[in-house]
Every structure is written in structure tokens, then in C-alpha cells.
Specification:
Blueprint: H1 3-20, H2 24-39, H3 44-49, H4 62-74, H5 78-86, H6 89-93, H7 102-110, H8 117-125, H9 137-153, E1 157-158, H10 159-174, E2 179-184, H11 186-189, E3 194-195, E4 197-204, H12 208-215, E5 220-226, E6 230-235, E7 240-245, H13 251-259, H14 262-274, E8 278-280, E9 283-286, E10 289-292, H15 296-302, H16 318-324, E11 338-339, H17 353-362, E12 367-370, H18 385-401, E13 406-414, H19 425-428, E14 433-437, H20 446-458, E15 464-465, H21 483-493, E16 496-500, H22 510-518, E17 523-526, H23 538-547, H24 561-570
Parallel strand pairs: 4-7, 11-12, 12-13, 13-14, 14-15, 15-16, 16-17
Antiparallel strand pairs: 1-3, 2-4, 5-6, 6-7, 8-9, 9-10
Helix pairs in contact: 1-2, 1-5, 1-7, 8-9, 13-15, 20-21, 22-23
């Protein structure tokens, strides 16, 4: 189990116990443990296997250490299993609604007897929610506006959740005796920001070997279907997974076919037909003779095309680009040399300036911008001018003391609801790097949102716009933004746009990031790390950039520090 999976179990425990009305001290203990585990750079699975003392970690006592050990060793938590049997899944689904936490869900469940999103929608439509003590018309309206999106969100999970589960299972099956190859396919391989289900392919002479292993896998809750070469299971997370056992001579064709997308495959099949060929999951055929199939590149070559990276397979011009020899050489994680959005204990981070700098250097980065929150984000201990200047002094001290990495004095500065910046111009003028962001007032009318963003872009000291729409994947729609106008302004004023690599944000999305490329607006891929472990989300941001067709040259922080410094001076 990964740290994220272990932390997720304790988050679920806390939510379900709060719905049940449990002791708040117990809830805080579980949530504190989840934060500790999630932010740790050390693998708790490895620590358990090595017999390490888990109580050395803050917030983890003897009882929690025992629970973590049992969870790692068995893949299950008895109390969570018990709670899932007493609280209907539809009740938990209500937590997807923005502004609706476990306390409110507890009222819906215990006082009104609501057990699904449909029940909640009907109750809100009938005016029953606003009649509850402590509730009102505003909450009722929020439910009605967001309940359909919450229901749809239940059908897809974040790429980080999907990728963790899929790669764990594929890795475990790939190590089985008799299994020669195992790979993740589907939307997870294409790195879509959410996945509805998972696809795993393996080659094995005896399909019973991987199927039996999958049925007994710790992440699998139930086997839904099983045939000769296909098995469908439901994971403990609720996500469903298909396993297909394919012959060696069809491996490449099956990998291509089950990776998709549907739209990409439709064009490929027509292309095959136009050449007198037939393309399916078993191979490329001329009449009854297979002409390609064992290797994915061989399948594309049989259709007169070079291999196309999975991230591009959405029928957005990739086949035409491949045919004309204009497929981009996509940016990679190894290309990234700097991280320009991260937090420390000065605001809501969990590590010091030095700890974050050393962790970034250990990951191969050569420069970082330390961008703690400005004062508007009071819940995150945002910095006023005096605290910020003292913080910058600390950053400069660390920069002088540490070798191998350059530290920039930065700030994540809120663009306020009235379109002014959260800190005065004289303060921002002292910064090496300013990220302007929207955190509040995301529901304002488009005109006001645009006024705010355009003011920030035209501001002489703002270098980039961070998570530009403010969206949260599956949970909150972004602000109403006229993106072409924003990108035109960014191009005019030399302001960069961020792809925030947090799987919960991935903002800009792939469509808007591709548009930024067309406008020649430089992109920065930043982690928004709030802990040492937070740097590890970088691949998700790079995947988003790859889906947007971005090359190394399109991403500003692929440049070395001297080159990036010239870019800042030029601006």
C-alpha cells in the first residue's frame, strides 16, 4: 500500500465516524495521522516491513501504529469495513458536494433518513433542507446547483487514485511466474485527469494464473465477472477494473485497442479499411493473414504511421501530424529543472525552507521559488508585508548556505475580489517571483473575474497566474473565464500561465494549456507542494502538458537557472 492509500483509509474512517456522530478527538486523531502519512517522504509500507517504530511520527500513538501495521499487512481495516456495512454508500457520496462536510451529511442521514444523492436532490427541491436547524436557502440552492455534478463525479476518480491502483495491480501481476508482460491501458494510460474504470493487459499461457491472483489481490473487493480470458473486478475504492489475458502475437494490437481513445481508434480502423486492411484487438490483417500485432509501433507502422504517444490519442489532429511527420517531441519529467510554486511552514506547509530546498535538490531540481500564501488566506496563515519580508530574509540566508540549488523569494499573492492585489506594489516589487491567484469569489460574474485576472496580468510585478481557473477536479467548476482574452493578455504582457500539478487541480487543463501554446504563452509546471512529499506530484503536471502537445521549449521551467533568469529579466 502506498502512503496515499493508507492516508485515504484514515480519511474515510474519520468521515464515516463523523457521520455516525463519534467522539471529535478520535476524528482528529485519524485526520492527523492521515496528514502525517500523506506528507511523509518515507514509505509507511517499508517502515512496517522493516519493523520501524511508527510512534516516532507526530500524531501516531501505539493504537494508530497497530492499525497502520495491520492495514499494511492485510490490506483491510476492520473498523472501516464495519462502517461501510452500516452507512449506505449513497450517504458517503454526499460528501462530494462543495461545502457539505460530514456534519451536514450526518444531519441528512440521521434526521431526514436520506441515503443517496437522489434523496438529497428531492429533499432540496421540496424545500426540506432549508427547514433544518442551522441550514438555509443558500445551502439548499448549493445542493441543487451541484448535485448532478457530484453524481457524475462518482463515476470517475482522480488520475492519481486510478494510476496508483492500476500500476500496483499491473506490477504485482507482472511479477507472477508465467506472466511475461503486464501493462495499464485505457484512459489511465492516456493520462486523462479522471478515469471511469481501469484496464490491465497481461500475456500468459495460462489465464488462470493472473485471474486467480487478481481475485485474491488486497485491492480487490469482489469479482464481478470471469470468463476464459477476461475478468472484471470491483476494487475496495469502488472503481472497477478489467483484466484481459492476450496472446503474445496480439499484445501490441490489444494494447493499442484498449488504450483508445474510442475516437482515435475509429479513425485508425477507417485508415486500415482504406488500405485494404482490418484492424482490431487481435492485430492488423490482410484478408485472414496477420501483418502486424505483436508490437504497438508495428501496428501503427502497418497503417503508415509512426508510433503516437498515448497522451495524444484523442483524435485532436494527432493522426494528421503523425502522417505529415510533425508529431511533437513531448516534454518529460526529466526536462523540468525548477519548481515555481511551493509552500513552507511560513504559511500552511509542513517543512522548512531548508527542508524543501534540500528535497527539491535531491529530486534533481536546480532552482525553486518559495511562494507562501499572502495575507488574504488567513486560514493558511497567509503573510502580511512584515512577515513576508522576514520570511524572504530566511530564504536568502538558506540560499547562501546551500549548494546546488537557487532559491527565489516568491509569493502566492491573492487577486482580491475588487481586482486589487493582496499586497502593496512596493512589497511585490521586492519579490523575485510573484504568482497571482484566485482563491475567493470564484462565483463572481465573468466581467468581474476577467477584471481581476486582467489586472493581475497587466501588473508590472506579477510573473505568472497560478491555477488560473481555480477549479477542483470532480468537486468544483472553475471560474467563468474568457480564456482566449486571458491568453492574449498574457502574451502581450509576457506573463506565464501555470499548470498546477496537483491531481486535484491540474489547472490549466489540457485544452487550455494547448491554447496557451498556440498563443505562445510560456507554461510553468509547478507542484504547489506543501510538504517534501508534495514534489512527487510533478509527473501529473507533466502528463497534463503532454496531453496539451507541449514540448520542452513550450515550458519555461525546463530552462536552466541562467536561462530562466534571462527570461525573467527580459520580461
Amino acid at each position: 500500500m502506498t502512503n496515499e492509500q493508507i492516508a485515504g483509509v484514515f480519511d474515510q474512517l474519520a468521515d464515516l465516524l463523523e457521520i455516525q456522530g463519534a467522539n471529535p478527538f478520535r476524528l482528529r486523531a485519524y485526520r492527523s495521522a492521515a496528514r502525517t502519512i500523506r506528507s511523509s517522504a518515507e514509505s509507511f509500507r517499508t517502515l512496517v516491513e522493516e519493523g520501524a517504530d511508527l510512534t516516532a511520527f507526530p500524531g501516531i500513538g501505539q493504537d494508530l501504529a497497530r492499525q497502520i501495521t495491520e492495514l499494511v499487512q492485510t490490506g483491510e481495516h476492520p473498523k472501516l469495513k464495519e462502517l461501510r456495512q452500516t452507512i449506505p454508500p449513497g450517504v458517503v457520496d454526499m460528501l462530494r458536494l462543495p461545502g457539505i462536510g460530514p456534519k451536514k451529511v450526518s444531519v441528512f442521514f440521521r434526521e431526514l433518513g436520506l441515503t443517496s444523492l437522489d434523496d438529497l436532490k428531492a429533499a432540496a427541491a421540496a424545500g426540506k433542507i432549508s427547514e433544518l436547524k442551522g441550514f438555509g436557502p443558500k445551502i439548499e440552492q448549493t445542493i441543487l446547483e451541484n448535485v448532478d455534478r457530484a453524481a457524475a463525479a462518482g463515476q470517475r476518480v482522480l488520475i492519481s487514485v486510478a494510476r496508483s491502483a492500476a500500476e500496483t495491480v499491473a506490477g504485482d501481476l507482472g511479477r507472477l511466474e508465467g506472466v511475461t508482460r503486464a501493462a495499464v491501458a485505457g484512459s489511465c494510460r492516456r493520462r486523462r485527469e479522471t478515469c471511469g474504470d481501469l484496464d490491465i493487459l497481461v500475456t500468459c499461457d495460462d489465464s488462470r494464473i493472473p485471474m486467480d491472483a487478481l481475485a485474491d489481490h488486497p485491492l480487490v473487493e469482489h469479482v464481478l465477472q470471469r470468463g476464459d480470458t477476461r475478468q472484471r473486478v470491483r476494487l475496495t475504492s469502488g472503481l472497477e477494473m478489467d483484466l484481459r489475458v492476450v496472446p503474445d502475437d496480439s499484445w501490441g494490437a490489444a494494447l493499442q485497442y484498449f488504450t483508445g481513445s474510442k475516437e482515435h481508434n475509429v479513425v485508425l480502423r477507417q485508415r486500415a479499411k482504406d488500405r485494404g486492411l482490418k484492424l482490431n484487438e487481435y492485430g492488423v490483417f490482410r484478408d485472414e493473414q496477420q501483418v502486424a500485432g505483436s508490437d504497438e509501433a508495428e501496428v501503427y507502422a502497418a497503417l503508415g504511421l509512426p508510433w503516437i504517444p498515448p497522451e495524444l490519442r484523442e483524435n485532436r489532429g494527432e493522426i494528421e501530424a503523425a502522417e505529415s511527420g510533425h508529431l511533437p517531441v513531448l516534454v518529460t519529467v526529466d526536462d523540468i529543472q525548477g519548481d515555481l510554486h511551493l509552500h513552507t511552514t511560513a504559511s500552511d506547509g509542513t517543512a522548512s525552507v531548508r527542508e524543501m530546498a534540500e528535497a527539491a535538490r535531491d529530486r534533481g531540481l536546480t532552482y525553486i521559488a518559495v511562494t507562501d500564501h499572502s495575507q488574504r488566506v488567513s486560514m493558511a496563515h497567509g503573510l502580511n508585508a512584515d512577515r513576508l519580508r522576514r520570511h524572504w530574509e530566511e530564504i536568502r540566508r538558506v540560499n547562501e548556505q546551500i549548494d546546488g540549488i537557487e532559491l527565489l523569494c516568491g509569493i502566492e499573492c491573492d487577486i482580491l475580489e475588487d481586482a486589487s492585489m493582496d499586497l502593496d506594489d512596493d512589497v511585490l516589487a521586492e519579490a523575485d517571483w510573484v504568482v497571482g491567484v484566485l482563491h475567493y469569489g470564484l462565483n463572481q460574474p465573468r466581467d468581474q473575474i476577467m477584471k481581476r485576472l486582467l489586472h493581475a496580468i497587466r501588473h508590472p510585478h506579477v510573473d505568472a497566474i497560478g491555477h488560473p481557473t481555480g477549479r477542483l477536479v470532480n468537486r468544483r467548476a472553475g471560474a467563468d473565464v474568457n480564456m482566449p482574452e486571458i491568453l492574449q493578455a498574457a502574451a502581450d504582457f509576457g506573463v506565464m500561465m501555470e499548470i498546477n500539478a496537483s491531481p486535484k487541480r491540474l489547472d490549466l487543463d489540457d485544452i487550455h494549456a494547448a491554447a496557451a501554446r498556440e498563443w505562445n504563452v510560456p507554461i510553468v509546471i509547478s507542484t504547489d507542494a506543501h510538504s517534501v512529499a508534495g514534489f512527487d506530484v510533478l509527473p501529473y503536471g507533466v502528463d497534463q502538458a503532454r496531453r496539451a502537445w507541449l514540448t520542452r521549449d513550450d515550458v519555461a521551467n525546463t530552462r536552466s537557472w541562467p536561462e530562466f533568469r534571462k527570461l525573467l529579466k527580459k520580461r
